[in-house]
Amino acid sequence: MLDWNPDLYLKFEKERTLPAKDLISRVEIVNPKRILDIGCGSGNSTHELKKRWPNAEIVGIDNSKSMVEKARSLYDDTKFILMDATEDLSPLGKFDIVFSNAAIQRIPDHENLIKSFYDLLNDKGVLAIQLPLIDEVEAQKALYELEYVKKYKQYLDDKELRFNTKSPDFYYDILSSLFNPNSIYIWTTTYTHSMDSLDDILKWYESTTLVPYFDALPNEEIISNFKNNFYIKLKNVYSPRPNGSILFNYKRLFLVASK
Ligand SMILES: C[S@@+](CC[C@H](N)C(=O)[O-])C[C@H]1O[C@@H](n2cnc3c(N)ncnc32)[C@H](O)[C@@H]1O
After folding, report:
1. Given a cut of 90, is residue 84 above it in pLDDT?
2. In terms of C-beta density within 10 A (0-12 exposed, 13-18 middle, 19 or more buried), how is residue 65 classed?
3. Using only C-alpha atoms, what is the Rg of the chain?
4. Does the C-beta of 99 come closer than 6 Å to ligand 1?
5. Minimum-distance ligand 1 atom for the alpha carbon of 208
6. What is the dihedral of CA 154, 157, 158, 164, to 10 degrees?
7. For position 188, which CATH number holds?
8. Phi and psi angles of residue 193, each rounded to the nearest 5 degrees, phi first
9. Is residue 226 part of a domain?
10. Is the CB of 113 under 6 A from ligand 1?
11. 2 alpha carbon to ligand 1 midpoint, in Å?
């Protein structure tokens, strides 16, 4: 499996960290002792947690070697562990906050995943999760159209390409079976990112959503052809504003619940 490219990911660090900041702002614990950041990536979300609660012990876990190495190189005040979120996480101990920003969308079975996160929480602990609602991003239409092009379809057909994000109702039912229903907050936000060019949207996609597509395609030539055709399709979806900027709307789902 292709690994993440942390430098390309961090090209849009400001935009990608904004939802982490918004999620943190809705967690009301004053003095948490231990915080877990699941799918911490290159450590940008973990760093925001550290800024908000400097006295807490914070652990970031991620199953990408390149992302964990990048996080360790950027932030030496936090512990980053190469670990998969679907493993038994109980050896890490209990936490006052279990946090995950833009990370669990590719993991299946969110019902059991959320239950396993719940089990990691101390009494009065808070679970805080953000997931992209990728099907509502305009660029996604262009990508889905490409999947049906014959020369790519044969390689993509049996691959896990979809995000596993479900509806707010689905998450409400799981959260309300575990947490105090009065403590549950669920909301969506559409971020309107102003991009310098279409190329930026392509780079954003290259660093995240396109990774499993590139992994499935057999060689550099087809990958490059796929990228060019995706770019051409993006031109049909996005038009520049009068100042040349392109508005990239990205919708996200937020979940917060307290024990
Ligand atoms: C879009 S990045 C988000 C990084 C960071 N949390 C942020 O706010 O920018 C998604 C991260 O989730 C990680 N990830 C995906 N599946 C995972 C899994 N099963 N276990 C641990 N980490 C996972 C990826 O390796 C990647 O670093």
Report:
1. yes
2. exposed
3. 19
4. no
5. 1
6. 150
7. 3.40.50.150
8. -90, 130
9. yes
10. no
11. 14
* Per-residue pLDDT reduced to its tens digit, 1-34: 677 888 888 888 999 999 999 999 999 999 999 9
Provide the number of structural domains found in the chain. Answer: 1
AA letter at 9: Y
The single residue listed with the structure tokens 């996480």 is 89
In short, whether 85's Cβ falls inside 6 Å of ligand 1 is: yes
CA 96–ligand 1 middle distance (angstroms): 20
Token digits of residue 197: 């060019």
Residue 66 pLDDT > 70: yes
Domain that holds residue 127: 6-258
Question: 1 lies in a domain?
Answer: no
The type of residue at 134 is I
Report the distance separating Cα 135 and Cα 176, nearest Å. Answer: 25
Residue 10: its pLDDT value, please? Answer: 84
Among 157, 137, 138, which residue's Cα sits nearest to residue 148?
Answer: 157
The whole-angstrom separation of Cα 191 and Cα 127 is 22
